[in-house]
Amino acid sequence: MVTLPPAVTRALDRVVGRIPDSWLERAHAAADRAREVTDHPWLERLAQVGLVAYGLVHLLIGWLAFTVAWRIDPAADDADQAGALQMVSDSPGGLVLLWVIGLGLLSLAVWQAGEVLRWWTGLLHPDRRLHAGFVCAKCLAKAVVYGALAVVALVFAVGARYDATESTQDLTDELLDVPGGAALLVLGGLVVVGVGCYLAWRGWTAGFMKDIDLAAAPDRYEPVIGSLGRVGYLAKSVAFAVAGGLVVFAALTKDISTATGLDGALNTIGAAPAGQWLLTAVAVGFAAFGVYALARARYPDRDPAT
C-alpha cells in the first residue's frame, strides 16, 4: 500500500488537528445536505442521460476520425468533441437534442462531483488520506470534463459556435507571450500525456469496470463490456498522448499551429506511416468507448473504489 512520506503526514496531521471541532461538524452537516441532492434518484436518472450523451459524442468522434482516415468527406467537421456536437446541431431536431445532451452532461458532472462528498472525510485520517485524495481528485477531474463538454453543448444549443482547435491555439499564443508561459505549456502538455498513460493503464487493467454495476448486468454482457472498454480506453490514451505531445512541441518550437487538441492529434496519427490504418483503429476505439459508455448508462455504479 502506497503511503505519504512521514514528514508530509505529520504536517497534514498538524493542520487537521488545528481545525476546530465546530468547523468539522458544520462541514459534515453541509456535506450531508449536499448529498441529499447528489444522491437523489432523479439526478441519477439525469446523469444516465448524460452518459448516453457522452457515449453518443464518442460514437460521432469515431465516425469523424474514420472519415478523416479514409477521406470520405473533406468538408466534414473537426474530429473532436466540438465537431461531434456540430454534427448534432446540423441534424434534424439537433437544437433540442443539444439541450438534452447539455443538461444531461451537466447533471452527470454534478452527480460525479457528488462522489467527493462520499470520500472527503478520508482526508482526515492518515491511513486513508492518500487513497481518498486520489479518488476525490479523479472524481473532480471527471466532473470538470463532463461539465466542460456540457458547456460546449449548450453553446451550440443557443446557436453560438465553438472551435476547439482555434481556442487551443489562441490560449497557446497567449501563454507564449507571458514570462514562463512556455514552461507552463510544457507542463500542461506533459499532464495531458500523463492522462493518456493513465487511460492506457485503466484500459489494460480493466479498472473502468468499477464504473459498471456488474451485479445488475447480465453475466453474458460482462466480457463484451470489458472488451469494448479496453479497446476504447487504449484508443483514447493514444489520442491524449499525441495531443499532449503536440502541445509540448508547440511550446518548444513557438509554433502554435501544432497545438490543435484532439482534432490535430487524430490528423497527426492519420499522417503517420500506415496512418490510415492506425487512425482507423483509433476511430474504432472511440466508437467502442461510446458503446461502453452506453452500457455504463444502463448499469451505472458511481462508486469509483469498489
Task: Please name the defining characteristics of this protein.
12 helices, 75% helix, mainly alpha, globular, 306 residues
Compact overview of the structure:
The chain is mainly α and 306 residues long.
Would you give an account of this structure?
This protein has 306 residues and is mainly alpha-helical. It has one domain (6-298). The chain is built from twelve helices and no strands. The mean pLDDT is 86.
What's the arrangement of secondary structure elements?
Blueprint (H helix, E strand, L loop, with lengths): L5 H12 L3 H18 L2 H29 L11 H10 L3 H20 L1 H5 L9 H29 L6 H13 L4 H25 L16 H32 L7 H11 L3 H24 L8
Q: What spatial form do the alpha-carbon principal axes imply?
A: globular
The number of distinct structural domains comes to 1
Query: SSE order in H/E notation?
Result: HHHHHHHHHHHH
- Measured as a percent range, the helix fraction is over 70%
Largest sheet: none
Instruction: Please tally the helical runs, counting DSSP H or I stretches of 4 or more residues.
Output: 12
Low-confidence stretches: none
Question: What structural class do you assign from the helix and strand content?
Answer: mainly alpha
